[in-house]
Backbone:
């Protein structure tokens, strides 16, 4: 569940600056380890060595320091060098999943840009893979679209429409189209799509919570209340219940 916030005036996220600041907090031994990795590339198969270093740096920042943004950065750098559909898709889906839970608008925008580039690379290798096309469209909707850029939402919607025109039963595409409809205030279209998803996937919690938001946005309090109550029962999480109760209070 969630509604798009207004356009963000946050400064763009700078990964190089972020890495520099993160490095300044490391111990001497950790700095030495990173420097040894970065300086380990010698003559010969430079690309293979670079891929190995990126993977080691990604593991270090993820496992030892728990820095998700830096892990994402090095994972995507490695995937671009490997340039296989498998690696590009793994990195793109990893970032897409991460950005959907990102509360900082600048980081969300940056993550969306990284994932978009990876999906686009993967699509050049396999243009007919609908999962890649749905992933790409989702990046626009959940990225800058979610933080108040309607043009980005529409880019995502157009991308997803290409998928459902070929396969109307692609429920992931239909779901994200429904969410895009809520974000862009096209509530009737969103409701139609989300109800369609629930016809095929009755326990899809994401579709249920966004459907409630769609009815609330439309001003249909009766149906909004109905679906909010269903989502509370199914998700059964105190934090979520509190958030939904606030929504319900604002409806009355």
Residues:
């Amino acid at each position: 569940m969630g509604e798009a916030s207004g356009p963000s005036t946050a400064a763009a996220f700078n990964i190089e600056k972020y890495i520099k600041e993160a490095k300044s907090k490391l111990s001497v031994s950790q700095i030495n380890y990173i420097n040894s990795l970065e300086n380990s590339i010698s003559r010969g198969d430079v690309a293979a060595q670079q891929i190995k270093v990126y993977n080691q740096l990604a593991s270090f920042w993820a496992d030892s320091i728990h820095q998700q943004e830096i892990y994402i950065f090095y994972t995507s750098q490695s995937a671009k060098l490997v340039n296989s559909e498998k690696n590009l898709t793994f990195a793109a889906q990893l970032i897409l999943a991460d950005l959907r839970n990102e509360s900082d608008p600048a980081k969300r925008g940056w993550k969306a840009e990284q994932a978009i580039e990876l999906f686009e690379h993967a699509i050049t290798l396999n243009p007919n893979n609908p999962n890649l096309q749905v992933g790409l469209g989702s990046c626009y909707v959940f990225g800058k679209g979610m933080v108040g850029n309607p043009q980005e939402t529409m880019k995502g919607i157009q991308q997803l429409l290409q998928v459902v025109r070929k396969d109307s039963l692609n429920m992931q595409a239909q779901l994200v189209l429904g969410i895009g409809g809520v974000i862009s205030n096209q509530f009737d279209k969103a409701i139609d799509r989300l109800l369609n998803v629930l016809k095929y996937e009755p326990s899809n919690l994401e579709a249920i919570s966004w459907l409630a938001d769609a009815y609330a946005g439309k001003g249909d309090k009766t149906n909004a209340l109905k679906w909010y109550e269903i989502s509370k029962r199914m998700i059964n999480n105190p934090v979520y219940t509190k958030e939904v109760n606030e929504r319900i209070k604002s409806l009355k």
User: Anything to note?
Assistant: The CA atoms of residues 8 and 147 lie 6 Å apart. Residues 105-125 form the longest helix (21 residues). Confidence is low (pLDDT under 50) at residues 3-9.
